[in-house]
Structures are given as structure tokens and as C-alpha cells.
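Hi R.,

Here are the chain sequences for the assembly we discussed:
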Amino acid sequence: MTIRLDHVLEPGSGKAVEVRRGEVVRVEQLEGGQCADFNAFNLHDYREFFHCGRTRVLHGMFPTAGDMLWSAPPRERPMFTIIADTAGINDLSFPRCTGVLFEYAWGYETHTNCQDILAEAEREYGLTPDDVHDSFNLWMNTKIDADTGRLSVERNTSQAGDYVELVAHFDCLVVVSVCGADVFNTSNFSLKPLRLAVRTATADERVEWLLPEARRFANQRVVEDFKIKEIRTERELSRDPTYVADFPGFPIRTTSVEVELTDDEYRQLEALRSHGGFGATDGEVLRHAFFTWCLDHWMQPHP
Amino acid sequence: MSGQLVAVEINQQQAELLDRLVAQGVGASRAEVLRNGFAGFCADQMALPEPAE
Ligand SMILES: [Zn+2]
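And here is the predicted structure of the full complex:
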């Protein structure tokens, strides 16, 4: 195991680091109680980047050891697996903090914020503020009210020495910021340094965690699949006069299947229909019941 | 079987799923797969505990 990079992230700063396939990026608390924002891009194609939404649906709001970080659709593949997480208080619900947040909430003209820190850090690799995306929030202790859906932030319970380690499944640019929010609860109202390190995975870790490089699903699209392969360079949008729509699976055609039910079964169907919530007609009720049964018994639970 | 005929509208993607279930032996035809799934749904509903008042 070799440590390739060992860097102290001072409060108010961030850093972009290359993490190659099979390497482990580690973010560590030096004093405790500090939130870190984590962005990631495919090192060889920055248009593939980490996606909170897909990750949230597959692993929940609070990913921890054993969970994966996914790239955005249409690429949609595991970028990292979290292989260690000593505190287990991470978040995928909050967006990165921004200058606007501190301006409207508190009247600051200038205030440390993750959007600006991440943008400045990734500028080292030619990326722009528009390329910053919503973060995996390490050590952000959030709660969701089950009734209202409102989000809240609670005190950061991480301690000095707590760390999160992620193994990269392909070459990535990782960008980490010391979250600049000191007038919210996120980091217990003070900004503190973090350690950022990159090391090679051990042979055992590679066997246990590293996924094969080949894509697993045809719908994990690559640039070769795109009808337009070039990255836009103009900011202005204009219509392509030669455009002809070509939606996959279009057009949708329906057919009718006659299903014969026993009198007993038909009485059950009538009961469902009069109960309500399954559809207005016999056919709708049967279709609802059938596909609900399919979801429960035939769907693959997890990619 | 003297029963009731129910017409179920499905699209080509749903038909594809039904055909896969036919291939997996869930029923001999799309109609039988639909019927067996409906029976399965009803059995699942019966298996649910009664809601506590
Ligand atoms: Zn922040």
C-alpha cells in the first residue's frame, strides 16, 4: 500500500485530486465536527459526474460503508464504493452551500461556500463554476421530517480521527471542500481542517470491492451511443432545422388480451373495483393487480 | 371453466414482459399469465394482516 498524496485541507479551501481505478481516496477529521463536500468526475470525460439522485434512490439518504456512488444518467455506473466510514453520518439530501445562500440569509457580500470553493479547486483542471454539481456531504448530520418532508441539520457528531474511504472503479477527478458554512449547524459553528489522502488499495481490498471495468447494462450509455458526440461550445441554444425526432420505443401501441376469470375470481375483481383505488374498469383493475404482483415477485431488486 | 371474460389493454412493452413470464412458465399464454398474476395478487392481499383499528 502506497500513499500517493497526503494533503491538509485548510478551512476555506478545497482540492481537486486524481484518483485512479483501484486507488482509495480518504477524507479524515483532524479535529472533528467538520462537514466536507465531495464532487467527482470521470477523469477522461468530465461530462460523466457523480449523481446524488441515482445514489439516493439506490442507497438511501445516508450512504455509508458498502454503498456505491453512481454517475449521472445516461452513464449511470458505480464510480466509487465506500469501503470504510467510521462515523456514518453522511448526507445526500442537501445541495452544496452557495454564496447566494449566505447573502440572502445573512446579508454577506462574501462568505466561504462550497460552490465557490469547489469551483476554485477544480479550476486547476479547467472546469468552470457551472461544472460544480450537488455534493455527497460527508459528516453532515441531517434529518427528514416524515410528514412534511422538510429537511434539517443537526449537530455534527464526528470526532478527530473519523474517516471515510472510497475506492474508485474508474479514473476520476475528486474535488473535496471544507464546507464553508459556519453560521449554520453543519460543522458546529466553526471551520476546521480536514485531511485528504490517496493511496493504492490493498490486494484484499481489490478482491473485495473493485468492480469489473466492463459495463454491465447496455443502457449504461457511452459517448459512442450518443447521436451528438461533440460537447457544445456555444452558450446560445438554437434549433437544428434538420432535426427529426427518433424516440426509443416510440410509438406506443396497445393490444387487448381477453382474460377468463372463474366466478370466484371475478367476484374478487368486483370487490377490488368497488373498494376503489385500483381502476375504474374491470380491465384496469386486473392490470393494476397483475403489475403490482409482478413488482412484488419478478422485479430485480438492485442493479 | 364457465367464467367471465375481462379485456385488458396492454402496450407492446408490457406484452414483452408478459411473453418473458410465459417463457419462464408463469402461464401458457399472455392471458393465462395475467390471470395467474391476478390470482397471485389476490392471494397476497389475503395474506396481509388485518389493519388494526
Ligand atoms: Zn458547504
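Chain A touches chain B at residues 249, 252-263, 265-266, 268-269, 282-283, 286-287, 289-294, 296-298 (CB under 8 Å). The first strand of chain A starts at residue 3 and ends at 9.

Let me know if anything looks off.

Best,
T.
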